[in-house]
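Example 3.2
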Amino acid sequence: MLNFVVCDDNIAVLNKLCKMLETIFINNSLDANIVLQESSGNNVINFIKHNHVDVLVLDIDLKDNTSGLKIAEELRKINKNAYIIFATGHIEYVIMAYKYKTFDYLPKPITLERLQETILRLFSDMENSINTKYIKIGNSQNIVRENDIEYIKRDGMKLVYHTASKEYEAYSSFNKIQHNLPNNFVRCHKSFIVNVNKIADVEIASNKISFENNNHCLIGPKYKNNFMEVFNNYGNF
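Structure, written as tokens:
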């Protein structure tokens, strides 16, 4: 699930913008959520310093002693990959805004059609970028952060992508997805592909892999040597 933060010091505009985003998420089956709806730029800066954010939709000209540009500057110090969308009625800010690797600029008043075009293009960009840290689930619009996935389980004709908070299902096979997965995803069993960065413990004697939330998956004898080689190269222990 992608985390959106929305900031505008006009409460009426802020509420309308968030409602439009939620409509877009629902109508297009996008796995996204607004984790912060805020009129204060300083509160947004504090939030992004302590929480993971995927997309920021920011008004540039805020009334408190900060701005959307300042929020973007602070974000880039800690997160180089988050998407920034600026919304403003001041055309003179556009050149300054792109300094912060801005994904798009939305002139006010923002329409549902224009916003939807940007959001759908953003999801497409996440899917197609060679530097993406997101994984698309099957043919759906679900895009999950790579590091949220603990393991992928084969269940009949389906694959189940397991995170600490949610499971995502898709009709596919390991053969179709393995070549697109990052190097830290390794086959450890005929029914499991594991993200070695999420492993909390490996019990060699019982051939079991454990995660921080007490979930676990198995190591198969056919895949054990290769799994251990990859795991040890990542230096978890």
